[in-house]
Amino acid sequence: MMANSQNNEKKIAIVGAGISGLHCAKILKSKGFNVTVFDKNSEIGGRMQTSEIDGFLIDHGFHVLQTAYPETSKNINYKSLECKPFKSGARIVSLNNGKIRMKLIADPWRNPIAGFFSLFNGFLSFKDLLRFALLRRTIMKGKIDQLFDGNDGSTLEYLQERKLSNNAINRFFLPLFGGIFLESKLQTSERLFRFIFRMMAKGKMVLPKNGINSVPFTIAQEIGMDNIRLGVEISRIENKALRFRGEAHRFDLVIKAFNEPQEGDGKHVWTVYFDAPKSPLRSKHILLNSNLADSSSIVSHVAVPSDIQPSYAPSGRSLVAATVVGDRAIEMGLESEDSIEESVRNDLGTWFGDGTVSTWKTLTIQHIAHALPISNPGERLTNVPKNGDDAIECGDHMLHGSVEGAMLSGRNSALIAINRLKNNSEPVQGPKKKV
Ligand SMILES: Cc1cc2nc3c(=O)[nH]c(=O)nc-3n(C[C@H](O)[C@H](O)[C@H](O)COP(=O)(O)OP(=O)(O)OC[C@H]3O[C@@H](n4cnc5c(N)ncnc54)[C@H](O)[C@@H]3O)c2cc1C
Prior knowledge:
Blueprint: H1 4-7, E1 11-15, H2 19-30, E2 34-39, E3 50-53, E4 56-59, E5 65-66, H3 70-75, E6 84-85, E7 90-96, E8 99-105, H4 112-118, H5 126-140, H6 144-147, H7 155-161, H8 166-181, H9 190-202, E9 205-207, H10 214-223, E10 228-230, E11 236-237, E12 241-244, E13 247-250, E14 253-256, E15 267-276, E16 287-289, E17 301-303, H11 305-308, E18 318-325, H12 326-331, H13 337-352, H14 354-357, E19 361-372, E20 392-393, H15 403-423
Parallel strand pairs: 1-2, 1-14, 2-10, 7-16, 14-20
Antiparallel strand pairs: 3-4, 5-9, 6-9, 7-8, 11-12, 12-13, 15-18, 15-19, 16-17, 17-18
The chain binds flavin-adenine dinucleotide.
Residues 15-21, 38-41, 46-48, 61, 63-64, 233-234, 257-258, 269, 368, 371-372, 395-396, 401-406 line the site of flavin-adenine dinucleotide (FAD).
């Protein structure tokens, strides 16, 4: 490794102040490089944004962190962000013969008492519970990298091969993992399913006190805001030069930390946020819609962030977030904000009572295009981010769509950059790709 003082003379530009670019910048800065991060937006954080509306903290799309994410937990101080957890397990809402039921599915390995009772609540058959236990045991075994080895079918095929019933798949896995992968057919690679399942079984799902944007914000503060130039759109990226505001600017190295989404590319999602006088949920769980596959309902899940972090709502109010996966909305012919709001209110009215939901004020209806990259089978998903031959690129599209995927990719690009500047050689050689 070069001495830090020598690194100081090397100028590196990173285009993109999302979590991947910021993490990459932080690592390079800690090695003494002279780093500047550019972003076309006026805010740092890319897709991890939080706005304030009427005193509520509104994340752009319901967004959580997993404490078991390896790269994230090593580099983000959950304690200083005052993160608080959702309860493990989930509540499941179902409509049967006109009757609404909200049952708890607890993880017996994490919460033995609630889990034990939830085994007998009639939601899943004894066979499914047994197969669920086997699935869990398989996924919890071995090293994380091994989760990315072996078969690369879809999540749906993986669950079917493990003989989970359609009932279990449609009523539990579809609303939960469809809501995470932002797709309604569980077509995402089983490799990513195994990884996320393990993260959820091992750690906690948490929310930071000041909104999801506080995660990239803390990294930005470590880099120093003086080293981040916002509102600068880069029109051309070369190996050692950037073009913006009509001029070329030279660097020793340039890193591209974003994806150029094409029309119809990636996955999209609708999130409708409501101001409610009180929380409609009785516990700090996420609520999953078990009728998603067999009815015209559209909401995958409902969360009440202010139950976890009271800072998300003004005193005496609750923030309710309903998530609708983009392809489900299209399937149901819903493309406008009005039609989404109406259908969401319909679902919520069925579950919590029309009288209750009619008192809720809609705070915002968000449609987030290009929310996540597609990670379908056959893309040979590994735990090693891809990289090009000459340009160094990072972002969740280089690995998988999650904070962890983005941060790991940011680290990978930083290591490639260090290696390249050290050897002053081209093309770039990143860590060997596993296939
Ligand atoms: C609604 C939603 C919910 C999610 N929920 C979760 C969750 O619960 N858990 C989880 O782990 N992950 C979740 N994710 C995924 C996670 O947010 C992303 O994987 C991560 O934020 C991606 O970071 P990134 O740096 O790769 O890309 P981005 O955040 O997209 O950053 C790229 C940056 O590059 C900038 N840029 C692009 N072009 C230019 C240009 N020409 N010049 C200058 N700047 C440019 C952009 O403005 C942007 O700021 C969610 C994502 C969404 C959208």
